Amino acid sequence: MKPRIAVVGGGWAGLAAAVAAVQRGAQVSLFEMAPTLGGRARSTAPKHPGAPALDNGQHILIGAYSATLDLMRTVGVDPEQVLLRRPLSLVNAHGQGLRLPQGPALIALTRGVLSHPAWTGPERLALLARSGVWALRSFRCDPRLSVAELCRGMAPALRRDLIDPLCVAALNTPADQASAEVFLRVLRDALFSGPGAADLLLPKAPLAELLPHPAQRWLEQHGATITLGQRVEALGALSTADAPGADGIILACSALEAARLTQDIAPTWSREAAAFGYEPIVTVNLQAHGLDGRPLNLAAPMVQLPEHTEAQPNPAQFVFDQGQIQGQPGRFSFVISGAAPWVERGQAATLAAIQAQAEALWPGARLAVESYVAEKRATFRCTPGLHRPAARPDPRLSPRLVVAGDYIEGPYPATLEGAVRSGQAAAHALV
User: Fold this and answer.
1) What is the rounded distance in angstroms from the CA atom of residue 73 to the CA atom of residue 62?
2) CA 19, CA 218: separation in Å to the nearest integer?
3) What is the spatial distance between Cα 169 and Cα 178, in angstroms, rounded to a whole number?
4) CA count, 13 A, side-chain hemisphere, 203
5) Residue-level pLDDT at 194
6) What is the pTM of this model?
7) For residue 374, what are the CA distances in angstroms to 40, 172, 333, 385?
8) What backbone phi and psi angles, to 5 degrees, belong to 43?
9) Contact 67, 61 (CB under 8 A)
10) In the chain, what percentage of residues exceed pLDDT 70?
């Protein structure tokens, strides 16, 4: 008889867990309290017919996300069709900056650093030397270090042009507050996972088409049942007609929901899960056209913006040209990572500051704000020495209960890859 597995949560961790459990011969029932699947990487219905689907933010994948890319292929998605692959580049609006050529990542990094137009010779050599030291130490460090402490003594230009933007993009936490241990793990995966590991993968299709919708179709074709718009009030409530006497439960919901559902059976674990701090991400989509009505463009699909200063409040660190990415000319996504200060200032102040950034990019352009999306709990704050809860709340009390999510104990920051790997590990543990 097939083991019966209930999966609570239909984000990327829950979908990964459900697919893996089905592959291992389980009868799966998935419960999602939202009306759509996808969790914190989802699409919503367009505001009016003909309008593009609105994602809950601009997401970035990298070539090292092997588990995520394999899962997409499993459910019938060709990553090369839905993702724009480009070698890693951190360039400004003029196209100047770090560009990694194709090929083995370490060689590409060396060539990219040596050819950076704005760094001096000593700065380039110092960065390569520092990277070599990290590699010799197997990209490990004292877990109490912040990224800023890890990079102490590094030239300001290297911090400004590379370390700080890379840190906030990967960990969604400012460098002076971000875990150096996790940051080095991200670098290790990008530099030592083979050719193309550091490539940027930008969604050409709505997030729903990358995994949530194809995974839903795949699961239903393989006999799984999916219930949307229904919150699980208690773990005992999972013994329903869809999941009678579940043999195992995978909690793949948010940390706060998992804490609520386990507070009676695993109170210590529940307190740990409820104690996370979070960092928001704000995405502002706008249209930009010249005075002649023609859509504007950028030097690259993703452009790094000038750093924020008191004199020049620049909230967004990156802007994405959706004309180059999704074939929507004149549409741009300004992304504010670590956006807590701007969420506190409010939507009006944030939009005004983004408008000023756009006007600095395209003086005299015709600008029209399309949408403002604030994901207030986009990621957990990836701080030094952060204690992350184990996948099993208490094996003695709940041997058939496993938790999955990007916040579960592991080496990755709050990324899609971390969520997918956690979901797959939970399914393997139960089935």
Assistant:
1) 16
2) 8
3) 11
4) 23
5) 81
6) 0.94
7) 11, 14, 13, 27
8) -115, 150
9) no
10) 95
